[in-house]
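Teaching note: in complex prediction, the entire set of molecules is handled at once rather than each chain in isolation. The prompt given to students was simply: 'Predict the structure of this complex.' The entities are:
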Amino acid sequence: MNAEFRKARVLVGDAEASAELVRGRVIEAVERYGKFIVFRLAPSGYLLVHLGMTGKLLLDPTVRKHTHAIFTLSDGILQYEDSRQFGRVECREVLPERVTKLGPDALAVSSEDFVALVRGRKTRLKALLLNQEIVRGMGNIYADEALFRAGIHPLAMGARLTRARVRKLWEAMREVLTEAIASKGSSISDYVDAEGERGSFQESHRVYQRDGKPCVVCGAEIQRILVAQRGTHFCGVCQRR
DNA sequence: ATCGGTACCTGCACGC
DNA sequence: TGCGTGCAGGTACCGA
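The expected output is the structure of the full assembly:
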């Protein structure tokens, strides 16, 4: 592959050194690590991509206003596009500690480990689920959806939940992520996958951005509050404090 | 250890 | 039509 970086802000590290690191290398595998997309390169090295809020990896050669990186592959062009520039691209010989220090993956963590992680924290459940150093892979949409399905209030404290309720949250988290992945994710405004396909899980959201609308279970009005500066949606009846 | 606030960006919906 | 405001799939950093 060959890489061209057009925007310093979205590249972690030096543009020249990054391009040199990936030059001539082959993509051996593409894996997910929490919210990171990891391209494992041969004979060595990694290309890491975090989409942030509006990042997209596209198999599309058209360079547009927000095209920040262009990867020339043996069979086509892959580009990184990101209007808000909150995402990041990084080329490294080894995975950076910022990434390796994250918690276990939300879809791989065992029920018992998850119970221990959650009950060991005094912080609010919503903030806990968004903290990638506790469990990696959950974002704002899926935190709200998982808490709703588990019937847990976003302001509830991890340390005060019974084991049974945390186990229920573990199940809800896996269920939500598995369904969302099967639906190719949630396209809130313009998210598309590498083939340009929108996701459809937004059609299955039960609380996220449904404030003011009736709860699908009890009919009560869905509430919106701020927790750790993030919009948080829940049903005050199904998710009691 | 954890929290609240701020900062970083662009684009869109909305009210006036 | 334009302008101001608030909001958005996320993370990092600061001081408390």
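Point out the following to students. The mean pLDDT of chain A is 96. Residues 163-182 of chain A form the longest helix (20 residues).
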